[in-house]
């Protein structure tokens, strides 16, 4: 078991960068390559991965600290210290003659280091991917230029992203983009051709980052100064001191555009995987930097909002209504809604949002029906049964359902089938002090006017005294909502799903109507038929309502 010191690796020339996130805590067991901290300069966010697997013994830095290469990050207790390879040569340097000054080996890799001015005026430069510090097949996530664009030396050309780093690849020369050889989504490795730039002036190209020009090629190939070198382990000055290793994963000096959102590569990758637009996420870190926790919080909020919407609004995601403080306008009382009221509200909302409603209107001439009904008055008194227009409506609707079976259906939830009902149970909306209730009168087609009238009275009474059983309110095929006793000339009833039709009945009025050539006063009953246009088409609805009106015009037909 050895104790290792993990230090800040070469930051590609950057120093005094801020630690903006500690990804681990004391006692954590980490694997090789796992992110330890995130540092950020004014140009880049960089994750520093662990150079070895082990247990974190002590973290020596805090968020907000400023660090440079060689600073101690933490002590790690592991089974073995991995062998640290020598820094691989930069892409270009393999082809270059050995430097006379061996001490320049490290500094050569620094973007700005040892730049030499090379005469490249009016030449076409082939810009290739530089050493990515060992990373391979890194995805291009953003192309920042187009052919014809003028770029200055150092201007960003593309942004690449591995699972550990977002890297902006700057142009090594000033000039005009002639050709772009890549597309968003292309995977690039060191040496891949990115663009051809017509250089308009002398460009300072770091000697060590120049790529070899293919023999016979007129164009020079240059690597953009982007990837940081891999730093060798520093030999411990004191043999008794724990060995010091630097992070061996390359980190890139230039990351995401500072003008866009602040987020580390891991967060960006996670956001891409989850399909989250980071611009919508509120960062809690310095400079509003987005941490993984911010992403999780954002997703929690999205899930909560959509669950709230689906609870009250079916599957549709509709914008929430703004909260209004009504007390600012005058005195108010806040009265809790009854359970029944809330249930009704949810059912209405669900139906309105899920079902494409169409409402069709007509007036039935019930002059004869009313005359007949009034003629029943002595019997009503004798039987102690009140007969309103409603039982006739129930009978007429039952007959219309039989005649137009398209209305006596429900749709299967998967939208694949229609359930055709062979029974006729009709719901009746009842206005009660506690709220709206819809008891169901079963087998309406098999019952007479007296029986139906008795049942209407009994059900209405049960509803108003809260004595309805669940079974009294189940199994409806269609609903009648009669507001005739209350008033109004017409309304749009909301379908009582999973039924597909509802009849609204408004207040009977005496109107002048032509019967043939003769104008006469008639008792006209306004009817409004709402139907689910997924199940019923306009033709069916027209036939249904016309048939209903015909039956009510002459109730003798009901007994045929
Ligand atoms: N036009 C004119 N008068 C009508 C009428 C109409 N369309 N329908 C009924 N009436 C008359 C009745 O004949 C009765 O008159 P009398 O007292 O002179 O006999 C009076 O209005 C009251 O009738 P009612 O309401 O007691 O009886 P009903 O059979 O017509 O209705 C019931 C029963 C339970 C459906 C009804 O009381 C009720 O609650 N209706 C409200 C339904 C409702 O709220 N719908 C809206 C749902 S969406 O929010």
Can you give a write-up of this model?
This protein has 560 residues and is an alpha+beta fold. The chain has three domains: 2-81, Beta Barrel (OB fold (Dihydrolipoamide Acetyltransferase, E2P)); 116-205 and 225-249, OB fold (Dihydrolipoamide Acetyltransferase, E2P); 352-559, 2-Layer Sandwich (Chloramphenicol Acetyltransferase). The protein contains nine helices and 31 strands. A hairpin with a 2-residue loop joins strand 25 (430-432) and strand 26 (435-437). The chain is elongated and about 105 Å long. Mean pLDDT is 79; it is low at 80-121, 201-220 and 224-259. Oxidized coenzyme A is lined by residues 388-390, 428-431, 436, 456, 460, 481-485, 505, 507-508, 525. Oxidized coenzyme A binds next to strand 25, helix 8 and strand 28.
Shape: elongated
Helix count equals: 9
CATH superfamily of the largest domain: Chloramphenicol acetyltransferase-like domain
CATH topology of the largest domain: Chloramphenicol Acetyltransferase
Estimated structural class: alpha+beta
Topology of this structure?
Elements: E1 2-7, E2 17-22, E3 29-30, E4 35-40, E5 45-49, E6 54-59, E7 66-67, E8 72-78, H1 104-107, E9 115-118, E10 124-128, E11 138-143, E12 150-151, E13 156-161, E14 166-170, E15 175-180, E16 187-188, E17 193-199, E18 203-206, E19 220-223, E20 244-246, H2 265-274, H3 292-313, H4 339-354, E21 357-365, H5 367-375, H6 377-383, H7 390-403, E22 409-411, E23 418-420, E24 426-428, E25 430-432, E26 435-437, E27 440-441, H8 449-464, E28 478-482, E29 501-505, E30 509-515, E31 518-532, H9 538-553
Parallel strand pairs: 1-20, 10-19, 24-28, 28-29
Antiparallel strand pairs: 1-8, 2-4, 2-7, 3-6, 4-5, 6-8, 9-18, 10-17, 11-13, 11-16, 12-15, 13-14, 15-17, 21-31, 22-23, 24-27, 25-26, 29-31, 30-31
Bound molecules: oxidized coenzyme A.
């Amino acid at each position: 078991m050895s104790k290792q010191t993990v230090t800040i690796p070469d930051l590609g020339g950057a120093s005094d960068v801020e630690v903006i996130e500690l990804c681990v805590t004391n006692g954590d067991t980490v694997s090789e390559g796992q992110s330890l901290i995130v540092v950020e300069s004014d140009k880049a966010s960089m994750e520093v991965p662990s150079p070895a697997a082990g247990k974190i013994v002590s973290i020596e830095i805090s968020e907000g600290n400023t660090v440079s290469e060689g600073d101690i990050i933490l002590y790690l207790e592991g089974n073995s210290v991995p062998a640290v390879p020598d820094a691989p040569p930069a892409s270009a340097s393999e082809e270059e003659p050995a430097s006379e000054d061996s001490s320049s080996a490290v500094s050569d890799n620094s973007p700005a280091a040892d730049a030499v001015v090379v005469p490249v005026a009016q030449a076409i430069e082939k810009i290739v991917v530089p050493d990515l510090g060992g990373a391979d097949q890194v995805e291009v996530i953003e192309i920042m230029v187009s052919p014809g664009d003028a770029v200055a030396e150092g201007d960003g050309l593309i942004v690449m992203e591995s699972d550990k780093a977002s890297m902006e690849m700057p142009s090594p020369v000033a000039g005009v983009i002639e050709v772009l050889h890549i597309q968003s989504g292309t995977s690039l490795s060191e040496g891949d051709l990115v663009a051809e730039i017509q250089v308009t002036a002398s460009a300072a190209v770091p000697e060590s980052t120049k790529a070899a020009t293919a023999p016979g090629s007129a164009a020079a190939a240059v690597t953009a100064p982007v990837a940081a070198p891999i730093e060798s382990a520093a030999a411990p000055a004191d043999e008794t001191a724990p060995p010091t290793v630097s992070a061996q994963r390359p980190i890139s000096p230039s990351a995401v555009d500072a003008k866009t959102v602040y987020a580390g590569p891991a967060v960006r990758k996670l956001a891409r995987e989850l399909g989250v637009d980071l611009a919508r996420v509120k960062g809690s870190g310095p400079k509003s930097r987005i941490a993984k926790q911010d992403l999780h919080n954002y997703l929690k909020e999205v899930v909560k909002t959509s669950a709230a919407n689906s609870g009250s609004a079916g599957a549709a995601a509709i914008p929430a209504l703004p909260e209004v403080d009504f007390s600012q306008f005058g005195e108010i009382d806040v009265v809790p809604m009854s359970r029944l009221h809330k249930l009704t509200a949810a059912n209405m909302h669900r139906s309105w949002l899920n079902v494409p409603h169409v409402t069709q209107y007509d007036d039935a001439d019930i002059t004869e029906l009313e005359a007949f009904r009034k003629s029943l008055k002595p019997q009503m008194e004798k039987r102690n049964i009140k007969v309103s227009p409603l039982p006739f409506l129930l009978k007429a609707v039952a007959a219309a359902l039989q005649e137009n079976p398209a209305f006596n259906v429900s749709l299967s939830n998967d939208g694949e089938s229609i359930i055709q009902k062979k029974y006729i149970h009709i719901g009746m909306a009842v206005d009660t002090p506690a709220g709206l209730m819809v008891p169901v009168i079963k087998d309406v087609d098999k019952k007479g006017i007296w029986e139906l009238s008795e049942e209407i009275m009994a059900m209405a009474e049960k509803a108003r005294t809260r004595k309805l059983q669940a079974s009294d309110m189940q199994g409806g095929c269609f609903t009648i909502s009669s507001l005739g006793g209350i008033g109004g000339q017409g309304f749009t009833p909301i379908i009582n799903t999973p039924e597909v039709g509802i009849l609204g009945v408004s207040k009977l009025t005496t109107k002048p109507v032509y019967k043939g050539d003769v104008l006469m006063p008639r008792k006209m009953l306004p009817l409004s038929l709402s139907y689910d246009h997924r199940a019923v088409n306009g033709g069916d609805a027209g036939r249904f309502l016309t048939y209903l009106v015909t039956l009510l015009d002459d109730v003798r037909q009901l007994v045929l």
